[in-house]
Amino acid sequence: MNRFSVVAAFAAAFAFAAPLHLPLSAAEIPAEARAWAESCETPPPAIYRDAVGQLIAQMKAEGLWDKCGLLLFFAAHEATPAAFSLKGAAKTTLNGGAVHQLGRAIKGNGKDAFVETGLHLQEIPGFELQHHGLYVYATDDVPGGFSALGASGGGPNIALRPRNLASLGVFSGTPGQVTAGQFQSGVGLCGYSRFSDMEGLWVKDDLSGPLSLAPAAWPHSTLRVLRHGAATAWFPGGVAFVWAGAPLQAKEAARLSALFDDCLRSLGTFAAIRVPPTPPYTGPGAFTRADMASVRPQGMKIFYLTAPPPSDAADEKSYYHFPLHYAVCRPWTAASSTSTEVKCLELIWSDRALGPKPGVISDIPFKKGNDTSGVVTLKKGTGRTEFDSYELAIGAMLGRTAWTAGLLPFGDERCRWEGKPMGWCDWLELWGYDVSRWRAMAKESADVTKDPAFTRDALLDTGGAIVHHAWAVANAESLFTQPAFTGGTIFCPAQPCDPRPGPRLR
C-alpha cells in the first residue's frame, strides 16, 4: 500500500467514524438547545436535538459560547428562521433559488440565491468595528471570487470568500479585499479575527496566520449569506454554519472548526462534505532543457504564461517552467528578474468578446471581470463596456500591443504586414475600428512621438465609438441607459468627462 492509499484509508475511517461524543440525556441538554427545539415549527428528530445539544455544550465548556453573538445553523432539519438560529436575533429569509439541504447546508446557485439575516453587523453582540470575528463553514469547494457571506454598501465591505482561486478572501470593513493562505479546498471553516485597527488573524480550519489590516468602517447593508455585494459574487456552494461575535484566537478557531465537524458527523453528512482533495501533481515537468535537442521541427520557441526566472542562475530544478524562451506576463511581474536568457512579453487580455451584449444591463454578475474593460456596478444591476465581435476584440489586442511596443500610430516601417508598414492605428483599422479622428489628429500634431494624446491613456469619452472603462465608471448611470458601446483600451479624446481620476490601464 503506497502512502496515498494509507492517507485515503485513514481519511475514510475517520470520516465514517462514530461521533466523538455520546448522546446527551435530557438533563444534559443545555437550556439553549431545549429552547431552540421548542421554537422550531416541527420538533427536531433526536439526531438533530443531540447534535445541537452537544455543539452548544462543548462551545460552553471551551469558552466559545460567550464570545458568540450570532450562530446560524443551516444544516437544520427544517428551513425556518427558528431552526436556522442557534444564537442571536436573526430573522432569516430565503431568497431566489436558495435550496435547503437537510443535515448539510443552505445551497446557493451563483445567480440570485441568498439568505437575508435582517441584522446589521453592529447589532450583533460582541461584534465591534475594530474588534470582531467572522467565520463561515462552507460545504462545497467553489474556487473563485464568490462571497459566502458579508455586508456591503457605502464603500466598505465585510465579507468572506472561502477560496478566491487558491486563497481565503477577506473584506474586513474596507473597500478592498486581502487574500491569505494557499488551500486545496475551500470546504470547512474559514474567516478572520480583527483585534485592532491594524492587527488581525486569518483562519482556515486548524491553519491560521497574521493579517495586516486597515482601519474598518461599517458597511450599510445587513449581513447576508451566499452573497455580499449589491449584485455580485453570488456563492454557488453551500454554507452550514455562520459565527459572528468577538474575535477568536487561532486555537479557539481550530476548536470551533472541529466542533462544527463533529456536529455534521453526528448528522451523517460529514463524509460527503469533507471529501479529501485530489493530491497535487508532484511529478517532473513535461520537458527539460536536454529534451530540446529532440524537438522537431528545430527552432521551436516556448512561450508560457508565467513570470520569468529571477536570474540566469536558475535551472530546471530551481525554476519549474524550463525550457522557456518567452515569459508572457505584465511588465511589473518581470520587474525584479535579471534573466537574460528569457525574454518577457506583455500579456494582453483577448477574451472580452465573450461577454453578453455590450451596454446591456444584467441582473447577474459576469464571469470575466478581470480585463481592461470589466464590470460596472449600477444601482439597477451590472453593466459592462464590452466588444460586439471577436474582430473588435482582436483589433484592440493587436492595437494595444503595437501601442505598448511604441509603434507610430500610422505607417511604422519597423512593423510590416503583407508589405505594408503598420502603426497601431493601422492594426485597429484592419480589424474594423474607425480611426479617422486619430488620422486627423496625427496630421495636426507636430510630433506624434511626444504628443500626450498619442502617448498616454485618456480618461475621456470618445464620442460613442469606443468607451474607456474609467470614463464608463464615472458616467455609469447615464451611459447604461443607452444602446451598445464597445470597450477598448486606446482612445481618441473628444469631450471632457468627470474630472475624478480613473485607473491607468498600463
What attributes does this structure have?
506 residues, alpha+beta, nine-stranded antiparallel sheet, 12 helices
Provide a compact summary of the structure:
The protein has 506 residues and is α+β, with helices and mostly antiparallel strands. It has helices at 3-15, 31-39, 46-61, 81-84, 250-267, 270-273, 390-404, 424-430, 436-444, 452-455, 469-474, 476-479; strands at residues 68-73, 85-87, 93-95, 99-101, 105-107, 114-116, 132-138, 149-151, 157-164, 167-174, 178-180, 188-194, 199-204, 207-212, 224-225, 238-245, 303-304, 326-328, 343-345, 375-378, 381-384, 416-417, 420-421, 466-467, 486-487.
The main sheet comes to:
9 strands, antiparallel
Please compute the radius of gyration using only Cα atoms: 28 Å
Distance between the termini: 54 Å
Strand content: 15-25%
Would you report the number of β strands?
Answer: 25
Overall geometry comes to: elongated
With helices defined by DSSP (H or I, 4 residues minimum), what is the helix count? 12
